[in-house]
Amino acid sequence: MHQITDIVFFPDILKLPKSTLKETCTDMGLDTSGTAFDLATRVWDTINTGDRDTLGPCRNRLLAGKTSVTWFKIENEGALRGFKGLLEGLTRSPFEHINEVMPSDVTSEPVLIAASLGNNDDEIYLRYMYNSGNRREVNGTSVHIVPKCEVTTVFINLQTDIIEVRTDSRSANNIASHIARLIGQQVTLEQKRILAPYGNNVELIANALRGELIDATSTPEFIFEDFNEQHTKAIIDILNALNNFFDEEDEAELVNNLRQSSQIFGEHLLTTPFVALILNGMERVGLRVNEGDLRGRPLYDTLRPYLQHQGGFIKFNHPVNGVEKSFTVRVGLTSDSIYFTTPATEEVIEFVRNQVII
User: Fold this and answer.
1) 291 phi and psi, to 5 degrees?
2) Virtual CA dihedral for 26, 31, 33, 38, nearest 10 degrees?
3) What is the widest separation between alpha-carbon atoms in the chain?
4) Which pTM value belongs to this model?
5) How far apart are CA 63 and CA 152, in angstroms?
6) Could you name the domain of life of the organism this protein comes from (predicted)?
7) Which mean pLDDT values do the consecutive 10-residue runs of the chain (358 residues) have?
8) Residue 320 CB: number of other CB atoms within 10 A?
């Protein structure tokens, strides 16, 4: 029966951080000089001869890394519990054999090429291959269309009815649908919403991860279709009046400017906070900090009540092999996925899954 190291392919090795590749080359007694590609090639040439146990120290990184993760829930409780046995009963069990597919035969329809056990009998990993598009390869006077074959990972805990697909959200839907068809019964598959259970408030996800919100993308809460250039000028005049007051401390001039500008708004100022008026006409508002948390910053806290989150970046710490490390994820509203911008490990993905999804 396959273990994780048995279903690793060259693209997985290429995606490892250079520091991990150097450590692996050191453990294997290989040359540690050169680029990341050089290191990955040496590692692959070594393990491709069959000696894959040497990948053990980086086992928790092999199928993780920088990746987008989408989760699906099978509403039929317990539908996944017999899934492992179903795969084992296939003519060529993916737990025992690698399905070698020729690139020319790969289409956008995902193909299961291998499977392995996880940390226990309730956890399995599936490897899928699919064509993510085609590229032109020019050779002299001829042009060839070459498919771009992607190999991606699915993690399944057979007891939770959760399917975790580690690829872009569009391809993730195709792969989840393929798994539902493999189960062979009438199952209801639903993509897990990321932000919706948190009221589309990315701050609450940051809290769940015990992290910092370092970047937020939002849309204005209010839209005023009857806004015109006169209203825009009035807002600018109000802001300039406030700025001039701190320079000149002329209170009478400030009050006069505010009254003149406020008359232009009429009922808008009676029903809408001034900050919401400032945001009118903005399709998207993005705020970011280099250090610390956006929350507590004057501009963000002032604008936040009048914005609807569309996504954001969250930085959090999590121990890896006993050492506290920093990780960053991007949460997307439209894709309903989480992208690990920092190379993740299995422990980190599990932490996010348990804190946010389950």
Assistant:
1) -140, 150
2) -100
3) 87
4) 0.87
5) 8
6) Bacteria
7) 92 92 91 94 88 86 93 84 88 91 83 92 93 78 79 92 90 90 78 86 93 93 78 83 84 82 68 81 89 93 90 93 92 89 94 91
8) 16
